[in-house]
Amino acid sequence: MKLKFLGTGTSQGVPVIGCTCEVCISENPKDKRLRSSVMVTTEENKKILIDCGPDFRQQMLTNHEHTVDIALITHEHNDHVIGLDDMRPLIFKSGKDVPLYCYSRVAHEIKNRFPYAFADVRYPGAPAFELHEIENKPFHVLDTEITPIEVIHFKISVFGYKFKNLAYITDAGFISDTEKEKLKNLDVLILNCIRKFDPHPAHFILPDVIKLFEELKPKKLFLTHISHHLGLHDIEDKQLPSGIHLAYDGLELIF
To answer: Which is an annotated Pfam family here (predicted)?
Structure first.
């Protein structure tokens, strides 16, 4: 299987509009971060999208991706769902509704934000989705076992997702001991890390991630959902402990 980072930035992206810090004005492509999303390609070449934010259209075009077989949604914040309308060309081409897998709470929010996609009589140009409400237990789709990982983002539950011996978690500030059991001794763990310093009420910062790396002991840990406050990629990546790396848009992992 393969995972590609379509975006590794926070809800504002990097560069941030109007910011002139060294990260935002950097010309290094690795310092330019679209909103967080990944594409997982299964062994049968099926495409599993995780989150569909405002940069979805650009991400698909940049990465020459042409299909989405299913989408897993971590939670309902706009930087993770507001790009769903841009799935229309894929839906028109396939003639099929795109299956979305998410919490029941998230499904309700998606219906509220895209009511025209669920109308009894839809406008011909409207998108169409097939909602699947999932719980915190493994499920099979596209010949692939997917294990949800329930984490806390400020005061709401968010799903991360585990495939084989890789787990992807974004927008987390707390992971319970029960859920940590699912994350021990992975080949690859992907965690959000919004900045180096100053505790955040909803996201891990670098010291939190290093502590989790030491506790969970993955072979490799990649940071995502990165803000401009974390620093320049080429400098910060070299200063991380061995085994921890900054992800960047376009990075591919084979697992």
So the answer is: Lactamase_B_2
